[in-house]
Structures are given as structure tokens and as C-alpha cells.
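Q: Make up one entry.
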Amino acid sequence: MAGFWGRRKRERDELEAQDADLARNAQRALVEADERIRVTTDELAFAEAELGEGPTSELREALESVRTHLGEAFHLHQLNHDEIPDTPEELRTRNARIVQLCGWADELLDDRTEALAEPIERARRAPEIIAGVRRDAERLRARIPHARETVARLAERYDATALGQVADNAAEADQLLRFAEHSADVAERRRDAGQKEQANLALETATEAARRAATLVDAVETFEIEALRAESTLAAIVEDSRGDLIAARSAPQVPAVTDAMLDLQSALAALPAPGARTDPFGELSRLREANTALDAAIAAAEERARRVVPDLAHVRHSIDDADRQLHVARDVIAGHRGWIGADARTRLAEADRVRQDLDRLLGGSAATAVDIAEDDRDQAMALSRRAATLAGESLQLAQRDIDSSRPPGGPDQWNGGWGGPPRGGRGGGDLMGGILGGLVIGSLLDGMFD
């Protein structure tokens, strides 16, 4: 007993220590949250002075929400210290809620103030950024004549389709630079007039316009480099394609390979003559596609040549066997509707679904298909065998259900109200056994032709 009471006392002391820590944490969290509200209120004022009221609306709303919920926290803290005695459970619940509210408030204010940190920094650096935009515009404008000369020189070598990517870059860059300078002037005037929100918007617009202008000017020089690289690659692809056409003559000459060879030959013949203006990007793309298509056709033809294609007669026999077994299973289940359970019906439904997949594969009724493409014969054989297997399983399950549903007492009892076979005739089990036996023999014969 002494050990029991000693353990209870230790547990009680530990709980009291935890409650004391929780109370101290709650009080400290309240003080920190209250100070955080004061600091964030000052930050909001500074942010509004730099950015205006629009961009700072989310921080303002967050502050209002935090003040509202911290009012609840201060009320709970007051209840913990009023003259009304509280149970340890009540104190524990209130302190936990105080800690939760203060933690939520701190996270929310962190999120909103961090979102404003970059815009505030940019706004404070506005004069520096405006000066940078003007320097960039001056530097880029000096490059525009060279970009025009480059485009003119490239136009002698490449056709309009290829050059369309950069033909108007110099003119567009010049317009963007004018817009960037104008936006920088607007940002400066709005900032001097105290219209911080409009000033910051104009500053962002100026920065983005200058960035896009730089991209357009750089793209002209990049185009020339990429075009030269495409021409080099095109020469290698042409040489490789000619070698592939020679090698393709020894591949199986199936229609897919023949058509791919003709396409590649056409792509090679369509290449411009030496000295003509070209589109190296388009020519490289077309030639690469034709080359890849020939490689794929040869690989498929060689793989099919290695694979034994089922004889058309064997496939037809497999389809006929599946249809025969499906027909028998449907007739047995339809003739004993009240006796057949869900398992047999499910197998039959699945067999019908697989049989429909076979029709979809062949693009019509498989039973009347005049011809079956060699590429489809393996799958047609697999689907028909699957349908036959499911139909056979359905028939076996139906036999089980019929046997379990017959009344005891033998054939003499069947005519008494069960609609069974006539007196003296063969039983349903013998009949079903004959059907199943026939299907087994059919499947064995089918295996002999595989």
C-alpha cells in the first residue's frame, strides 16, 4: 500500500509542476503577444507611409483579428486570478487556450509582416531603383542599333519563318524602354506628391518593362548562336538519316517501314539547296521526327518478325470456343434464374465484358471478322481465351448453385414442385456433367491447335 500511495503522490506532484509551467507559459505568452501588437502597429504605420493603404490592408485586418482574439485571452487570464476558486482542470484548460491564442496571433502577424518586407524594402530603395532603370534603358538603347543590324544580316541567311522569332525584337525593345523611362518619371512624381501606392505601382511597371526589353535584345544574339547550333546538328542528322535509309533496306519490308522510309526521303529532299535561305529549326524538327519514326518502325517490324504470329485459323477457333461456352453458360443461368447466385452471374458478366473488348479490338463483331491483323492476333487470342475461362467458371458456379438448391430425396422429389427432370430420366447433375465435359474436351482440342 505504501508503494501505491507513494506513486499517486509522485503523479500528483508531477501534474502540479506541469500546471505551474503551463501557467507561467500562458502569462509570458500574453505579455509577448501584447508587445507584438504594439510593435506591429508601429510597423503598419511605417508600411502605410511607404506603400499606402492598399498593399497594407491584409496586415491591418490581421491586427484587428489578433486584437479581438487576444481580448478573449486576457479575459481567460482574468478569470484565473479573480476571487472565485477554480479547479485545476479549469485553470489548465484556460491556460492552454491562452497559449494557443497567443501562438496563433504570433504566426499570423509573422506571415503578414514577412509578405510586406520585400515591397517595403523596394519602396525605400525607390530612388536607387529609378536611377537603375534609367541606366539600364540607356545601356540597352545603345545596343538596339546592333540588334537591328544583326536581324538584317540574319535575314540574308534565314527565311522569314525562322527569323519571325526575333524580327521585331529591336522595335519592341525600343518601345519598352520608352515605357520604362516614362513609368520611372511617373513613379518619381507620384512619390514626391505623397501618392505612395501609385508611385510603387509605377516603379514595378518600369522595372518589368526594362527587364523585358533586355530579354528581347539578348534574344537576338541568342538566336544567332542557336541557329548556328541547329545547322550543325542538322548536318549530323542528315548524315545519320542517309545511313538509316541504307540500313532500312535490310529490315523487314512491312508497310510501316516502307512508309517511314518514304517520309524520311521526302524530308531529306525538302531540304533547301546550298545558298538558299533556310529555317534550321523547322528543318531539324521535321527531319528528326522522320528519322525517329523510321527507327520506331524498324524496331517494331523486327520485334514482330521475332514473334510467332498466331495462325488466323487458330484465332478463329479460339473465338468460336469462347462464343460457344458463353452461349452454354447464358442458357444454363437463364433456365435456372431462381437457383443461380451472384458469383456465377458475376463471372458471366465479366466474360461478356471481355468478349465486348474483343469486338472493340477488331473494330466490329469478332465472330464475323473476315480478317484479323497480325498485330492484333495475340491480344485477340488472349481475350477470347479469357472470355472462355470466365464462362467456364460461371458454368461451374451455376452447377454448384443448382446442386445446392435441389430438394433432398432424389429425382422422385424433383417432379413434386421443383420442375426438375422427368421421372426415370437422367438427373440435372448428369446433364450438367455432360455439358462441362464437352467444354473440357473443347478446350483440350483448342489447346491442340495452339
